[in-house]
Design brief:
Length: 253
């Protein structure tokens, strides 16, 4: 949160300075240039305006400068908030193929399935907890992409076995189940941090989750304990209580 306000302050200062030093003088110069029927050059008008505005010689000019800067601060605030809220570009099938080819890293992880055990060849709902841990790891770090239907080596397995285990045997049923377990474990607000897409590659359908970082810490309940998972390098790992406290203090500083 502290980082958010620090960045917001930078945008506000930049907006105020930009309006005071460039935008407002230029607009005033253009207006006077047109108003004078081009008798005085645009460069001369701009120079004269700078002499009047900077430094201010009376209270009226000072108040004008404050008003101009305030407009810039408001503009900076609006632009920063828009930048933070602007939805990320949806991953295309080509994007996902590129991620798979590059392999797992700090921002990308593969999971073979949501709930199908390929070793025992049966449905195992306990595997859903592995998906939730991975999601928590991305939420608590810098976000990333979780691709379901691809094994650790990048082999595309598809989601067909997962579909068969659902009441609604389709990608809609898959997404509904995914959002349900996320909502139940982390809260409904976290669902807005996850964008689900489906891609057909080599006649197999896979799912990509674009996960944005969470402003609040997200915990996974395991064995009657709340555990903080974090994505570091190409591994999602649990942190101890002391490690969690230190990480959150550093993150919010």
């Amino acid at each position: 949160m502290k980082r958010y306000f620090n960045n917001l302050f930078i945008w506000q200062v930049a907006g105020g300075g930009l309006f005071l030093l460039f935008v407002s003088p230029f607009l005033l110069a253009v207006y006077q240039y047109e108003f004078s029927d081009h008798q005085i050059s645009l460069q001369q008008n701009l120079s004269d305006i700078y002499k009047v505005l900077l430094p201010p010689r009376d209270i009226d000019i000072l108040l004008l400068n404050v008003a101009i800067s305030a407009i810039g601060v408001i503009a900076g605030t609006i632009l920063y908030r828009y930048k933070k809220r602007k939805p990320k570009k949806e991953l295309t099938t080509s994007d996902v193929l590129t991620l798979i080819e590059k392999g797992e890293n700090a921002r990308v992880e593969f999971k073979s399935s949501l709930r199908h055990d390929y070793h025992q060849i049966k449905t195992d709902k306990n595997l859903e907890s592995m998906i939730l841990k991975s999601i928590a790891g991305f939420l608590n770090s810098n976000g990333g992409t979780l691709i379901i239907g691809v094994d650790d080596g990048g082999q595309i397995l598809g989601l067909e076995n997962d579909y068969w285990s659902l009441k609604k045997e389709s990608k809609d049923g898959f997404e509904q189940r995914l959002m349900l377990i996320v909502s139940n474990e982390f809260g409904k607000d976290i669902c807005s941090k996850i964008h689900v897409s489906f891609h057909r590659i080599r006649d197999k359908e896979i799912c990509s989750l674009s996960i944005a970082p969470s402003k609040r810490p997200v915990y996974f309940e395991e064995n009657n304990q709340t555990v903080f998972f974090l994505r570091t390098g190409n591994v999602t790992k649990p942190l101890s209580t002391s490690e969690t406290v230190k990480y959150l203090e550093l993150k919010n500083s």
